[in-house]
Amino acid sequence: MAVTLGQVARHAGVSLATASRALNGSARTVGDGLAARVRASADELGYLPNAPAQALARASTATIGVLLHDIADPYFGALAKGATDTAADAGLLTMVLNTGGDPEVELRCIRMLHAQRVRAIVLAGSGYTDPGATAAIDAALSLYRAEGGAVTAVSDHGDGYDTVLPDNRGGAAALTRALLDLGYRRPAVIAGPERFRVSAERLAGVADALAEVGLTMDQIRVEEAEFSRAGGRGAVGRLLDGAAGGRDRDQGRPDVVLALSDVCAVGVLAELRKRGIDVPGGIAVAGFDDIPLAADLAPALTTVRMPLLQMGAEAVGLALGRQDDGPSGPVRTLRLPVEPMLRASTGTP
């Protein structure tokens, strides 16, 4: 069995990144003593350098990769624009890859970008809750970073990554408080898929605000749906038809539906219109993200404003900074505030 770079690193008592730089000819220098130790371990173990790895360490292309869940979703479209504009200002091209929110597809994309020697990878979609999927992705990214690549994330992808972190939990709590202050007392929530970390963060924020007025999540109706227009339509249909995940029919019709994604909320509005239910007179509706069309809907959508263009831009900025600092620099987290935007869909002029 071939000796791996990781085995050489362990034998020499150095990090994988240091071993890679010592053997693969990276522009980032390693001290003579460390380099000699790594080379001695490689000789003793019979390590054969990987030619593509050496090429990546010596130089990368003038390209970055951006991975997102759904390019057709305006949320991801805005993130991609912020990222591509910033990359272009730095003289870089951007490869935007659509994963469909599937961790297996994401893993293949990471490996492809690694093989293409891109300068940086930006994870613009939510992280996954499945530990197995997360471990596989982390392992692929560790190999990429050990050979000179930079990785940044938008939202939580676990420890060890430079991250642009919008306040998903705080934003959901603030919006829920605002709805309670407007007098709504029978909220229903359309949550995102359990496989995404951002879904749990936003749902936790709703729970935080409800707890402040003595309510629990068991006392409201919650439907899980994909972050899509069809997901929103189907979820509100189940809520109205009394099929809300097995909850009791006698909880009554909600007075406000909080969809934890604007695209979901667009589907909610469409389904309520189809059923002849006035918004907000019959049922109020709120979303999350403040995608560009949210204020132009009829009625205009109450939501949480996320700085989407800035999020994409800052992620690329962190990646380029990591290229300058090297892999041993401290992990950086850029926290961005969000704010509720109250509009006509919840009865706010």
Automatic annotation (TrEMBL):
This is LacI family DNA-binding transcriptional regulator. The keyword Transcription applies. GO terms for molecular function: DNA binding. The keyword Transmembrane does not apply. Keywords: DNA-binding, Transcription, Transcription regulation. It comes from Streptacidiphilus cavernicola. Residues 3-58 form the HTH lacI-type domain. InterPro entries: HTH_LacI, LacI/GalR-like_sensor, Lambda_DNA-bd_dom_sf, Peripla_BP_I.
